[in-house]
Amino acid sequence: MLQAAQILSPWVGAGAPANPYRPELQDLALPLSWCDATGQPATNLTPNPNLVLLDVTAAPAIMDQLAADTRFFILSVGDLPIPPA
Amino acid sequence: MAALNRLILPCLSGPLRWLFRDEFSAAASAPLGSQLPASPGPGSWLVVDTEARLSRSGGSLACAGGKAAPIFGDPGLWAQAVTRRPGLALVARLRFSSLGYFNLGFDAEQTGSAGEAAFYFQGASIYVNCGGASVGPLAEVAAATEYLLAVALRQSGAHFYLKGGAFANWVRLWVSPTGSTAALYPALSNYNTAFTSSLARVVALPMPFQSDGALFHLRLAGSRLAGETFVHPAGFLQEFTVSASPGGLAHLSFRRQDANNRYFLLLTQAGDVQLFELSNGLETLRASGVWSFANGERMVIIVDGSAIRVFAGSTCVLSYNNLALFPTASVAEITSLSGFTLSDLIVWPRTLAGLPAAILDRAGA
């Protein structure tokens, strides 16, 4: 069972190869998939307030971990449907 | 040019050979009975429809939905078996009045879902079933919109094509290497959608559909080297085989304008796949996914407009919908390989044009 969520995360980084702009959520190195839902141009990073909207897919335990972390805001979360075979 | 015309003109003007053809021109009320002759033919359907959801009128097959307790294949229709060969295709027109779960394609049996080489609609998302595994999501469809669909068999696997709605031209959704069952049943297998179909045909498509070599944009066989570049179409499917040692990584660029302006993917043996944007030297991580790395895995990158999807085997491991930069750049680069082998790279055009598109148009006209 996987869940899909929309999560707000701060940006971190400086746009350099060794320190690229990235959502802070990435630094947790958790087993999850995410993508930037905004496509905000790199020249405008970091914004004020410093938040980026992410589409995240992960197991429920990972979502629980993110929900307990005050750096991130879960806007919505739900189970991904299991299609009939 | 004369030689080219000798090749092309018969493909455009010669007769297409139908192995099965139903344009649903003969009316039939529900229940349809277990055997339904195709009209005008040749062929007939085996029909499974215990709750009388199917009917045929006004030049269309209509399905009013699934069973009260839905199962795949009831209602369902299967034509007689055909024998797999490259270029043999099922072409159909389809319009959903309500979205749900539905299969259309080639089935290895006449029951249940179609798993051998078939479209698998899951709500608005299109997946495909290949050799029993589902791959996707590959694109989105809308209700109340007519689509032309084509599944064209390969020696093993199939090509999946779609036209209609947001897709003004034929697009190649997926190229599958999986599935080699010889005896295949053209099938429409419903779970819970309501739809109409005005055409279902099985046709032996002429060249270039009988040869992968006549359809791909380029193939770079064998192990590839860091620093290699090639030109990709605006929209493309790029597939390749990976193997790596612990700690290995690959860095693959596309839409490369120059060293400081490009997108690139980072693949690691540890199981990361990451999409970076490099704009005027500013590097931004735009998407990240995880995968279970396996030596010999076939990976596919699909780039179409502002969207990218990356697949490892049949699993979509990364997607991103805001590829806004460098839309006209067309250079790909194997930027670096470290403890990572990338081999047998094939690039397919996402959009069909010219002869292949004209042939599919004729097959669905």
Report on the structure:
The complex is a heterodimer of chains A (85) and B (365). Chain A has 85 residues and is mainly β. In chain A, 9% of the residues lie in helices and 34% in strands. Chain A contains one helix and six strands. In chain A, the strands form two sheets. In chain A, strands 4-5-1-6 form a four-stranded antiparallel β-sheet. In chain A, strands 2-3 form a two-stranded antiparallel sheet. Chain B has 365 residues and is mainly β. In chain B, the strands form three sheets. In chain B, strands 18, 19, 20, 21, 22, 23, 24, 25, 26 and 27 form a ten-stranded antiparallel β-sheet that branches. The longest helix of chain B is centred in the N-terminal third of the chain and has 12 residues, at 2-13. The relative contact order of chain B is 0.16. Classes of the chains: A mainly beta (85), B mainly beta (365).
Give descriptors for this structure:
heterodimer; A: 85 residues; mainly beta; B: 365 residues; 9-stranded antiparallel sheet
Q: Quick check: average pLDDT of chain A?
A: 96
Strand tally of chain B is 27
Shape of chain A: elongated
Low-confidence stretches of chain B: 1-5
Task: Give the C-alpha Rg of chain B.
Answer: 21 Å
Tally of helical segments of chain A: 1
Count of individual helical segments of chain B: 2
